[in-house]
Design goal:
The complex is a heterotrimer of chains A (662), B (100) and C (166). By secondary structure, chain A is mainly alpha-helical. Chain A is 72% helix and 2% strand. Classes of the chains: A mainly alpha (662), B mainly alpha (100), C mainly alpha (166).
């Protein structure tokens, strides 16, 4: 995180220099595209993909302009936000905070998203929910960009949560298959488990500012003041990291990422390689002021978790048959690399984000390439592949470049970022250095395995593979190019300009330590050299099956998923839910039914009273009238003389009365 | 010359007899006759007071009453004849269609 | 007791007895004849009281016309010749009522005009005086009466004629 500086004028031409003021538009464009696609997509030729692609193309160009501002030496741009609403002393706002990190993230997100949007034209062609796919894809991109440009934690949280929902929707895009919808739910709930501590972390930070603001810059200032409680800051740091664990799939909330491969491959490329999972890392970087002022053991915990994740995931990647699973575990491992870099302290911030930057490109490339292969052979499993390098040359070469970048082969992007991380680890946290080195070996090994099994040997499947259409191979080439050149932005020999953009407190000077680079290259070479002979020829049994107990443990993913399901999910579902249901049915519904029954009883009683007394009274009056009439009718004899008798009797009586009165 | 109360008592006697006749006789014509008795009693009353008060108006009124009585008897008998024609009986007890 | 009073006593006795006979006779024709006697006695009373015009008119109209009318009525309604059945069931109640009326009225009379009050001179209302008063003071009622008689005449005819359709 950058301590806020005064807005310095951007050098450069007017239009491009002024673009930084409109960084928020970059985040807004995909939302507009999503709305347009939602309402007009089906009627637009091409089923509505054009809105998203246009929005992202424009966004990418604008993002480059924003980055140019920093390339030319400009400073952070942090205008005051627009007031959203106020609760007592707490001011909630909507605003942007654009520093080098933001600019880099903007470029990454828009670039990869654009590539995925274009790629999906081919991959999702003919899909039953093509238009909806683009809606959610654009929506997701908008949400990620919101997280990136947000200047306050609440706005960040909004984008964060929208991303979670979009991830759920996209993973479950083919929800007709039960396992897809299950994977979507698993992803959503697992990240939610991480979001709870995240929110509490936000509350803690708001509390630290005396309930006045969620603005990140202000929070940073408040924490830097000596009066702030250290315990509070430490707690906030741990809680925030909880959110990062969930979103970035670190141990122990990593379980959703492999299952998330049930979604379409472009989704995996965008969300689960380059952007959403990077959001957790971004959060730690953005809130690094908190981590710096917390107790040092927080960063130790971070590095431990990162180490566990990176090693564990690397081992898991060795034994997968599904090509996407290999890449998924690889992503877990590389994310942990980034987190490990951040855990090294202020010096590691640049390195960690540099790796995020490069990783986004080559991992997206690998996923899209895998998608291309899957599209061709109609299967995810490498046991159905083989010998594809001749039928699918473009895919093969780009995939190879991506794999090499991932493995850290000089002079591709991965080499430079991995090197910086190794240097930083050696300087600050030496045990971490050895962990990262071991993982580098394994990374090279499993990518070699992957490439060999997929593209070399003889074809083992039943489909007729052919190269993918240009809409799909175009983005592959673009990303391959990025994988090649992106590393140079952080190369010390070339000025390590990346460190001038993304840093903590002061620009980072990347140094080139020769022996570290050598060791890194040897690690990569070692991994490749071990893997090559083992997998060059396809064998019936995977060579790693020679370690049966380890193989089983890895196939069962260390039984962590089983533990979660049997230890947590099933007891809640079967016991707690059943108990809650019983309470609801018998106690709550019982109370409601009881009230209804009582009301009915009262109503019956009132009815009885009404019928017996009130109606009885009315009926009695009627009866009385009838009885009186029945008696009076006897006066009507029909006989005139009788009437005369009565008359005379009356006359006599009245006479007496009047006489008496007189 | 004649003390007024005596005449009045005579008139009352005639009137009461008429009342009895109206209430008790079965034949409709007998009822009408009884009514004539009552009217005559009234006439006696009028003339007695006319003589007592030395005012000729009482007499004149008695004449009017005689005229009215004549008219009433005419109509009454017409009705009785009509009744007899429709019901073949002038027994007032049998004319009770308005009985409950 | 003056001579007129004696005469009046005789006439009143005759009149009363015949009136009672009217209402109690079993033979309706006898009743009509008793009515004649009663009406005659009333006429005599008028003469005694000095109302000569009223007296002769009484005899003329009542005895001469109305009783004839009654007799015609009796004939046309097939009055039973000879003894008739008894009067209706309520004759005891009727007797009671009649007695009550009589008692009440007598009580009123004797309260207003005590028996031992002085006698009054005979008021000789000549026919001329009657005619004078009639056509001077009471001419309107006189005309009204004539209308009444006309209406009664027409009414009786209308009521009693036989309908063609029936």
């Amino acid at each position: 995180m950058v301590a806020p500086e005064t807005i310095t004028a951007a050098s450069g031409t007017g239009a491009i220099g002024g673009a930084i003021q409109y960084a928020w538009v970059i985040a807004l464009l995909p939302f507009v595209a999503a709305a347009l696609t939602l309402f007009f997509g089906k009627r637009t030729p091409g089923q509505g993909a054009v809105y998203g692609i246009t929005a992202l193309a424009a966004g990418f160009v604008m993002a480059l302009a924003v980055l140019w501002h920093f390339v030319t030496g400009g400073g952070t741009y942090a205008p005051p936000g627009v007031e959203w609403f106020t609760i007592g002393p707490l001011h909630l706002e909507v605003g942007q905070f654009v520093d080098g990190l933001t600019a880099v993230m903007l470029v990454v997100v828009t670039g990869v998203s654009l590539a995925v949007h274009v790629y999906s034209l081919g991959y999702m062609h003919g899909d039953v929910r093509f238009t909806w796919f683009y809606v959610v894809l654009s929506l997701f991109t908008g949400a990620m960009l919101t997280v990136v440009v947000a200047n306050n934690l609440l706005m960040l949280l909004v984008g964060w949560e929208i991303m979670g929902v979009c991830s759920y929707l996209l993973i479950g895009h083919w929800w007709e298959e039960h396992e897809n919808s299950s994977a979507a739910i698993k992803a959503f709930i697992t990240t939610r488990v991480g979001d709870v501590p995240f929110m509490f972390g936000i509350f803690a930070l708001i509390f630290a500012t005396g309930f006045t603001t969620t603005n990140i810059a202000h929070i940073g200032e408040t924490i830097a003041e000596p009066g702030t409680s250290s315990a509070l800051v430490t707690a906030a740091a741990l809680l925030l990291f909880g959110g990062a664990i969930g979103k970035s799939a670190q141990f122990p909330l990593h379980v959703w990422l492999p299952d998330a491969m049930a979604g379409p491959t472009p989704v995996s490329a965008l969300i689960h390689a380059a952007t959403m999972v990077a959001a957790g890392v971004y959060l730690v970087g953005r809130m690094f002021e908190v981590f710096v002022h917390a107790d040092p053991f927080v960063l130790t915990i971070v590095s431990v978790i990162a180490a566990i994740t990176t090693l564990g995931a690397a081992f898991l990647a060795l034994v997968q048959d599904d090509i996407k699973r290999v890449l998924a575990y690889s992503t877990l491992s590389q994310l942990a690399y980034m987190v490990a870099g951040l855990s090294l302290g202020p010096d590691g911030v640049s390195a960690g984000f540099f790796h995020l930057f490069t990783h986004a490109f080559f991992k997206a490339l690998l996923f899209l390439g895998a998608g291309s292969v899957i599209h061709a052979v109609h299967s995810n499993n490498m046991s159905d592949m083989g010998g594809l390098k001749d039928e699918m040359p473009v895919t093969f070469w780009t995939f190879l470049i991506g794999s090499a970048a991932l493995a850290g082969v000089f002079p591709l992007a991965g080499f430079w970022s991995k090197d910086e991380l190794l240097v930083g680890a050696w300087e600050h946290n030496q045990w971490l250095f050895f962990v990262l080195l071991a993982v580098a070996v394994m990374t090279a090994f499993y990518m070699t395995r992957c490439v060999l099994l997929t593209f070399f040997g003889t074809y083992r499947g039943t489909a007729h593979p052919h190269e993918s259409p240009p809409v799909m191979t175009g983005p592959l080439v673009g990303l391959a190019g990025a994988s090649v050149v992106a590393g140079f932005l952080g190369a010390p020999q070339l000025g390590a300009v990346f460190g001038d953009w993304v840093y903590f407190e002061h620009p980072h000077d990347a140094s080139f330590v020769f022996w570290v680079a050598l060791v890194g290259t040897l690690a990569a070479a070692g991994g490749i050299l071990i893997g090559y002979p083992l997998y060059r020829e396809r064998r019936e049994r995977d060579p790693l099956m020679a370690f049966p107990r380890a193989w089983n443990l890895l196939q069962h993913r260390y039984y962590i998923d089983d533990f979660y399901m049997r230890g947590i999910v099933y007891p809640i579902r079967d016991r707690v839910s059943a108990g809650v249901n019983w309470t609801n049915q018998h106690i709550l519904d019982g109370a409601v039914n009881g009230a209804a029954w009582a009301a009915r009883g009262i109503a019956t009683f009132v009815n009885w009273i009404d019928r017996t007394f009130v109606d009885g009274l009315v009926n009695a009056v009627g009866g009385l009238t009838g009885a009186t009439g029945g008696l009076l009718k006897y006066l009507q004899t029909g006989n005139v003389q009788w009437y005369a008798v009565v008359l005379f009797v009356g006359v006599v009586a009245l006479t007496i009365v009047f006489v008496q009165i007189a | 010359m004649i003390r007024l109360p005596f005449v009045l008592v005579f008139s009352t006697l005639l009137f009461s007899t008429g009342v009895y006749g109206v209430l008790a006789r079965r034949n409709a014509v007998m009822v009408l006759m009884s009514i004539e008795l009552m009217l005559n009693a009234v006439n006696v009353n009028f003339v007695a007071f006319s003589s007592s008060l030395q005012d000729v108006g009482g007499q004149i009124f008695a004449l009017f009453i005689i005229a009215v009585a004549a008219a009433e008897v005419g109509i009454g008998l017409a009705i009785v004849i009509l009744l007899f024609r429709n019901r073949a009986s002038i027994n007032v007890d049998e004319v009770n269609l308005l009985k409950w | 007791m003056t001579a007129q009073e004696y005469a009046f006593a005789v006439i009143a006795a005759v009149g009363s007895i015949s009136a009672i006979a009217v209402v109690t006779a079993r033979n309706v024709v006898h009743a009509a004849l008793y009515l004649v006697v009663a009406l005659l006695s009333v006429g005599a009373t008028f003469l005694l009281l000095g109302a000569e015009f009223a007296g002769w008119v009484q005899i003329l109209i009542y005895v001469g016309a109305i009783v004839i009318l009654f007799l015609f009525g009796l004939m046309l309604t097939k009055a039973p010749i000879g003894r008739d059945t008894l009067d209706n069931n309520r004759r005891w109640l009727a007797a009671l009522v009649a007695l009550g009326v009589f008692a009440g009225l007598v009580f009123l009379i004797q309260e207003a005009f005590p028996f031992d009050s002085e006698q009054f001179p005979v008021f000789r209302a000549t026919t001329a005086a009657v005619g004078d008063s009639m056509f001077r003071d009471y001419v309107l009622p006189f005309e009204a009466i004539s209308f009444l008689l006309l209406a009664a005449l027409i009414g009786a005819i209308v009521l009693a004629r036989k309908d063609e359709g029936n």
